[in-house]
Structure formats: structure tokens, C-alpha cells
User: What shape does this take?
Amino acid sequence: MSTPVEFSSHGPPETVLPTGPQETLDALEDAGVDPEQVASVVAANPLLLAGWAQLGDLAAKRTNAAAGQIEAYAYFRIGYHRGLDALRQNGWKGSGLVRWAHESNRGFLRCLDGLRRMAETIGETDEQERCAQFLLQLDPDWQPR
Assistant: This one.
């Protein structure tokens, strides 16, 4: 016999990822738009979701469109999966809110949105739709970035 799912009277649970070390965030900011410097920060801090998002954004802007799109897709996918791991480690049970309003959630949401954009770009329509739906489930106020 199955157990009924019960929701709290306060609505769905909300998960807020912890903020990374300030020196790591500062290093990422200092790296700016230099792909080599950003990659160095991410290599030293592979759990930094904002770093994966930054690498994806930079790769997507490269002049070699096809290679940049695939590289961006890969960076965003890595950040997305590392973000799912981080969410689970912080109490997320596969559903509930992960809002953009919390700065520390933005790296994960940027990776998921980047994955959505790159999936659309390379013709992965099903994945693009799943990502778009997931973003709205995580944050009903989500606006594509």
C-alpha cells in the first residue's frame, strides 16, 4: 500500500544553496570574461556552479558557432549535474522551489537555463522543453535570462 504524499500548509519546500567562499567568488569576478582565467578558477573549485555557468556563457559567444555551442552545452550540463548533487546535499528531495531571488541559487539556475538555450540551439527540442518546464517548477516567477 502506498503512503500518501502530504504537503505542508506553507506550500512546497524551498532549498537555498550555501554561498561559496568569498575568496572563490572574488576570484571568479576577477577572472571576468577571460576563458583561461575562468577555467583556472573552476579547475581549482569544481563545485563552483557560477563558474560552470560563466564558462558556458563564454563558450556560447565564441566565433566558431558549432564548437562553441557544443562546448557551452557541455559546461552547462556539468554545472547542472553538480547543482543537482548540491541541491540533494542540502535537503532537496527532487521537488520544491529553488528561487533566483537567492543569489546562491543563481549558478545552478544559470546552468539549467544555459542548458535549455544550448539544447534549443543544437536542435534538442525535447531537452529544451524539459529544461524550460523544470525552471518554472523550481521558480514559478522564472524569466529566461
